[in-house]
Glutamate synthase
Amino acid sequence: MSQNVYQFIDLQRVDPPKKPLKIRKIEFVEIYEPFSEGQAKAQADRCLSCGNPYCEWKCPVHNYIPNWLKLANEGRIFEAAELSHQTNTLPEVCGRVCPQDRLCEGSCTLHDEFGAVTIGNIERYINDKAFEMAGARI
């Protein structure tokens, strides 16, 4: 984790870029590019690790969101993915289709003033990366 307690101010919320329209029109691909390792770590570092994490409370499956954001920021991807699987059988799907803007990201303490932590995109990143690294052992 960063030693900068104002990381959420210094680093804006960044969503992954959209794939070009001409590609999306002719291929069956996801709309957004995946985060790079650096992007995922930087965005995870914006989490305040609130004492009473509203994001976790608002999540229908009560994911341990601040915990796996911390692990993702530390580069401990496999552990973060294992933790996300403890409360959710398909976090790799939820990272794509769950309405985070109304649930976890909508209740993020940073949401109104600084832009919520990109929880869904980080969830997608850690689980995709873990599957890439370890196959189906998760």
About this structure: The mean pLDDT is 91. DSSP finds nine helices and no strands in the chain.
